[in-house]
Design brief:
The chain is mainly beta and about 140 residues long. It has a domain of about 100 residues. It has one helix and five strands, in the order βββαββ. A five-stranded antiparallel sheet has the order 3-2-1-4-5. A hairpin with a 6-residue loop joins β2 and β3. The longest helix is centred in the middle third of the chain and has 11 residues.
């Protein structure tokens, strides 16, 4: 049998099919910014857009990062892309709308560092009315 992916020329860029349905944990090693030609789907007008291309320690393949994935990384690690080097992200395949159809794409999940609590909760303070609140000695939810 012939797989349609075998008919495409070899590529150094990650495709959703490369993930084989699983999530990959990768560490950003470096990036370059490249300008790409784009076409407006409605008007057909051509324009240029800059996108980062990320390299990872765990694979030789790179990821051309779209705005959705770039925003996900920025949410977790800030707007300065140089600060992303050495950071861990998760790549996972999912279906996304593309024009009138749905296609498989790579999405990024990056976990934002937990913020330090600004105040401590009282140890033996008044019982909260929430059914699962600390201090609910009955061991059962209160409804």
């Amino acid at each position: 049998m012939v797989n349609i992916n075998d008919l495409s020329p070899p590529s150094n860029s990650l495709k959703a099919a490369d993930l084989e349905g699983s999530e990959w944990e990768v560490t950003i090693a470096s990036y370059v910014v490249k300008e790409f030609d784009q076409q407006d789907e409605k008007t057909g007008e051509q324009y240029k857009v800059k996108k980062p291309i990320f390299s990872f320690h765990e694979t030789e393949k790179t990821l051309v990062c779209n705005k959705t994935n770039r925003d996900a990384i920025a949410y977790a690690y800030g707007d300065e892309m140089d600060d992303w080097i050495g950071k861990v992200i998760h790549l996972y395949p999912t279906m996304v709308p593309f024009g009138a159809k749905k296609v498989e794409a790579i999405r990024v999940r990056a976990v934002k560092a937990a913020a330090k609590p600004t105040r401590k909760l009282p140890q033996n303070g008044p019982k909260d009315n929430h059914p699962f609140a600390p201090g609910n000695d009955e061991g059962e939810p209160r409804f």
